[in-house]
Design a protein that fits this description.
The chain is mainly alpha-helical. It is 57% helix and 0% strand.
């Protein structure tokens, strides 16, 4: 028992009387609106890292100054995301926005004490002068 469909027997006149769906047009479109839309989408993509920067800054601020696993995850995300994005694209504005995200990640590392940027962080590498006896 097999069923087959015979499309040749369908009445075509019944389907031709249907109204076109909303927004459909048979007239050819010009390239100008398409080019404007393409440029708008390109700008949206270029500034998308800047749009996420405030939320990432809030995450970094709210995660605290300690070194628990949650804060380390935030820092890892702040440092890894810009590199992955920059590797995928090479536009100037896009790169600048990702460098801002990287700066927030480095600021968070500094505030957590993970970056050696103070004199006391390098004390282990300093040599002491020999004592002078009088």
């Amino acid at each position: 028992m097999s069923a087959t469909l015979d499309y040749a027997s369908l009445e075509k006149s019944r389907w031709k009387n249907l109204a076109p769906p909303p927004g459909f047009s048979n007239q050819p479109t010009s390239n100008r609106p398409y080019a404007a839309l393409k440029e708008k989408r390109a700008w949206d993509l270029a500034i998308s890292p800047a749009k996420s920067l405030p939320m990432q800054g809030i995450h970094a601020y709210m995660s605290g100054g300690g070194v628990p696993i949650f804060s380390m995850g935030i820092v890892f995300m702040l440092l890894l995301t810009p590199f992955k994005s920059i590797a995928g694209m090479n536009a100037d504005i896009y790169m600048a926005c990702n460098l801002l995200t990287l700066a927030v990640g480095l600021w968070k590392c500094r505030s957590m004490g993970l970056l050696p940027n103070r004199h006391r962080d390098w004390l282990a590498f300093e040599t002491r002068a020999p004592e002078i006896s009088l």
